[in-house]
Amino acid sequence: xxxxxxxxxxxxxxxxxxxxxxxxxxxxxxxxxxxxxxxxxxxxxxxxxxxxxxxxxxxxxxxxxxxxxxxxxxxxxxxxxxxxxxxxxxxxxxxxxxxxxxxxxxxxxxxxxxxxxxxxxxxxxxxxxxxxxxxxxxxxxxxxxxxxxxxxxxxxxxxxxxxxxxxxxxxxx
Amino acid sequence: xxxxxxxxxxxxxxxxxxxxxxxxxxxxxxxxxxxxxxxxxxxxxxxxxxxxxxxxxxxxxxxxxxxxxxxxxxxxxxxxxxxxxxxxxxxxxxxxxxxxxxxxxxxxxxxxxxxxxxxxxxx
Lengths: 173, 123
Prior knowledge:
Chain B: This is V-type proton ATPase subunit F. Chain B: Keywords: Hydrogen ion transport, Ion transport, Transport. Chain B: GO terms for molecular function: proton-transporting ATPase activity, rotational mechanism. Chain B: InterPro entries: ATPase_V1-cplx_f_g_su, ATPase_V1-cplx_fsu_euk, ATPase_V1_fsu_sf. Chain B: Belongs to the V-ATPase F subunit family. By secondary structure, chain A is mainly alpha-helical. Helices cover about 60% and strands about 10% of the residues of chain A. Chain A has a single domain, classed as Helix Hairpins. Chain A has helices spanning about 5-50, 95-100, 115-160, 165-170; strands at about 70-80, 85-95. In chain A, helix 1 (about 5-50) runs antiparallel to helix 3. Residues about 165-170 of chain A have low confidence and may be disordered. The model of chain B has no long low-confidence stretch (mean pLDDT about 90). Chain B is of the alpha/beta class. In chain B, about 45% of the residues are buried. Chain B has a single domain (about 10-110), classed as Rossmann fold, CATH 3.40.50. In chain B, strand 1, helix 1 and strand 2 form a beta-alpha-beta unit. A four-stranded parallel β-sheet of chain B has the order 2-1-3-4, with helices on both faces. Chain B is globular and about 45 Å long. Strand 1 (about 70-80) of chain A pairs antiparallel with strand 1 of chain B, so a sheet runs across the interface.
């Protein structure tokens, strides 16, 4: 690679800006996720208050049963960008006609007539999963930008040390 | 940029307090595989840090798990293990818990990204 120091510096600036944007995006998604999860926790607490603390706990999850199957289908696409693998996630609800009776709605673990707040809590946690996937995609891009920046810094460092000393002082490497 | 490969039917794993696990299991994230291994772990005040570490490492090794959700306060307990995980898959996401709001300054990925603004630290 025979790039000039100006090109390298320009690429570093562009990647640093993208890094800043992604950091902001990640924080925004996390704040949104926090709001939805907080609602979910509150609805879960309401359901616990109505049904009793013991009746809505992890003890209701049929751990011995192999029929605990996820309702979601997570798809991961791997793309190769400058030698590094960058994943891209996508989530969707499984289509019930493909699986028939195999998939059971987890709300049934907690009884037949469950409080409305438990249904709302379920909805909130399901909504949060879409944000989780968005955050994971942003995170993957951040990692890729950080990797690029590290190699650019290295490139800048090496090209500065090979340059004549006069030039490196001017460029303040 | 070339499409390398694509995988369907992957799982999300959860490590967190009881409410977080119950919430996400209620949402339909839970799965117990043929080897009777669940994709979640409930952490309470009696859970040893080594157990959390072991579970996290086990989740990382499983090829059916692509995203790991972990409560930020639990992530704090095994920060060194999370920081040492630099592979793109599984992606580790720190989420807030009922008692601990999300703190961006503790997030491993954001700390790495922030580190890029101090190039002197890199060399």
